[in-house]
Queue: 2 jobs
Job 1
Amino acid sequence: MRSFYHYMMRFRGNKQQDHEKELADWMFEDHSFPKQSTSYHEVSDYLEWNAPFPEALSVFDRLWESYQVDEKE
């Protein structure tokens, strides 16, 4: 299973500036982000303490659902 960070890197190339791209770019730049994690709680806890923008946690929750679906295929 690939990490959530790896899943999120697909949003970095978006030309449209949206919350998904903003979160992915922040994760890429944050050297302390748990980049190898596949744990919802580990990533969620990190974001709760270090959220880069107000909607980050809701964006994360939505994207985590997509991540789970993609990883099961």
Job 2
Amino acid sequence: KKMSNHQDIVIDEWDIKLENMLVELKSCQQSNSLKTCSDCSKFFKCELRKKYVIAVYESMNKGACGGFEF
């Protein structure tokens, strides 16, 4: 049972990290009067967006090694 509780904590950690990145991303969009990152001139070069994408992948695989696979 302790392993199960630990697993829940790990899952929550990744979800919290993703939520924090989403807050940062939304804040950036608002400060630049944008509804979406795709309207931004820095779309392909944005470090914040890259970190958000990584956080999404990590939350999906809970930090397991390897890339994102369809």
